[in-house]
TrEMBL record:
This is Alcohol dehydrogenase 1-like. PANTHER family: ALCOHOL DEHYDROGENASE, ALCOHOL DEHYDROGENASE 8A-RELATED. The gene is LOC107585225. One of its GO terms (molecular function) is zinc ion binding. Belongs to the zinc-containing alcohol dehydrogenase family. The lineage of its organism: Eukaryota, Metazoa, Chordata, Craniata, Vertebrata.
Length: 375
């Protein structure tokens, strides 16, 4: 099979803002150092929607979206020794080659060989193993999990426990790892601290979970959709704020409720105004604010006194986790009950229902929808 082209179903985004189209695509055999994966399940993440509705760079189309998946190795290309057919794996939108200056540095989880090093604007490497209607189809974020099969470089695949339930651990491919790690790794939330999480999608709820697991004594959940407050309580939030319920900035409300501001704040929306608000919600002297939500279409700003007064503003990609090393451990943490995954899943659908899933997320009616791709 390794030398055969596979024809399979995939949801193709032919252009920005248009509905995805179910197509038959051709998936080429894995080349040197590559792995072909049968995708079993995938989450629908807001970053998929960002590319489709907000980024709007036509150079990033046509593409197969999806980057939060899990599956089984179908075949491996020449030079692949760490994976074999049948292995359970999670594709990684952030690679870990283990050889570049970033991979060798414990201070970061970046990798110089990742697609984002050169092509963050189109969110895909131009090299692809997909074709449809005789034209190349880009592989979104190097993964493309809205397809029955995908081909990925081995530096962007994590081998996981054989007993792991793929329809749940797929969430560790992006959203849950991102939010959880932003709290425990990037922010470095400390026991007894006071935290605020802005935005209660899957990433924000995972950040709440991270704050709780790190021992925070008080966790403010901030969102304009009050229906999400009950879910936030499940993950450990203690206080709930709707910015629209106040006639003054929510940063001032938080300052009054916490004697000057929170110790840690996490922005999990991808909105530059909310990023500023999250910074302004921190206490002076030692407050740490982390940008977690993905956006690249607007600039952000703040008054210099915010930083001069001793606050720290940081960014977090994939929760600061070195991907190949960390994802297998996170899978074990889930299976041992240390982190939650099931509670994030609000809907389950088939690949053919992908546009319904996108609409649910777009309108804030779901936390995570899992698409069943193949048996």
């Amino acid at each position: 099979m390794v030398n055969c082209v596979i024809k399979c179903r995939a949801a193709v985004a032919w252009e920005p803002t248009a509905p995805l189209m179910m197509e038959e695509i051709e998936v080429a055999p894995p080349q040197e150092g590559e792995i072909r994966i049968k995708v079993v399940a995938t989450g629908v993440c807001h970053t998929d929607l960002y590319h489709l509705f907000e980024g709007k760079d036509k150079r990033g189309f046509p593409t197969v979206l999806g980057h939060e998946g899990a599956g089984v190795v179908e075949s491996v290309g020449p030079g692949v020794t760490d994976f074999k057919p049948g292995d359970k794996v999670i594709p990684l939108f952030l690679s870990q080659c283990g050889e570049c200056k970033f991979c060798k540095c414990p201070k970061t989880n970046l990798c110089d060989r990742n697609w984002s090093s050169k092509y963050h604007d189109i969110m895909s490497d131009p090299t692809t193993r997909f074709t449809c209607r005789d034209q190349p189809i880009l592989q979104f974020m190097g993964t493309s999990t809205f397809s029955e099969y995908t081909v990925i470089n081995q530096i962007a695949v994590a081998k996981i426990d054989d007993d792991a339930p793929l329809e749940r651990v797929c969430l560790l491919g992006c959203g849950i790892s991102t939010g959880y790690g932003a709290a425990v790794n990037t922010a470095g939330v400390t026991p007894g601290s006071v935290c605020a999480v802005f935005g209660l999608g899957a990433v924000g709820l995972a950040a709440v979970m991270g704050c709780k697991n790190a021992g925070a004594s008080r966790i403010f959940a901030v969102d304009i959709n009050e229906q999400k407050f009950e879910k936030a309580k499940v993950f450990g939030a203690t206080d709930f704020l709707n910015p629209k319920a106040y006639n003054k900035p929510i940063s001032e409300v938080l300052a009054e409720m916490t004697n000057g501001g929170v110790d840690f704040s996490l922005e999990c929306v991808g909105n530059t105004e909310v990023m500023r608000t999250a910074l302004e919600s921190c206490v002076k002297g030692w407050g740490v604010s982390v940008l977690v939500g993905w956006t690249d279409v607007k600039d952000f700003s703040a008054r210099p006194i915010q930083l001069i007064s001793g606050k720290t503003w940081k960014g977090s990609l994939f929760g600061g986790f070195k991907s190949k090393d960390s994802v297998p451990n996170l899978v074990c943490d889930y299976m041992n009950g240390k982190i939650k995954l099931d509670e994030f899943i609000t809907h389950k659908m088939s690949l053919e229902q992908v546009n319904d899933a996108i609409n649910l997320m777009k309108t804030g009616q779901c936390i995570r929808c899992i698409l069943n791709i193949s048996k």
